[in-house]
């Protein structure tokens, strides 16, 4: 799929009714990329647990869970969680993913732009962090394009098929 072929991408907050679709989606993407923190069959939540997770995000002022849909099909998601205490509630980390069939259409970028706008409007979030595998050049280029800066390296952060990978820690100040 190319963006010009996609009639419309809808970015919206996740709801409890998305739980089953999200579980199905996560089972697919776990096998599509080694850049995620889980592989095929490793996500490890039931539909009920996913419903509870979504509900818990909806109750927090410094958390966001959004999905991307194309023609009613879930094709991407982004989850952001701010710190649990007053001293770190202003900062959080996110993860983002898009179905492989939709890569290159700007969907991940739209999800992150939504997060940045939401953070600015929140009055709470002052910094967004992420970790990206050091060999994920497409991801790193996207994050830099959106203003994220490299802040450090986490050595041996991923272990996939008995091989270690480093992660680059990146951040974006909001104010």
UniProtKB/TrEMBL annotation:
Pfam families: Acetyltransf_1. CDD domains: NAT_SF. GO terms for molecular function: acyltransferase activity, transferring groups other than amino-acyl groups. The keyword Transferase applies. Keywords: Transferase. SUPFAM superfamilies: Acyl-CoA N-acyltransferases (Nat) (SSF55729). The keyword Transferase applies. It comes from the Bacteria. Residues 9-175 form the N-acetyltransferase domain. This is Acetyltransferase YpeA.
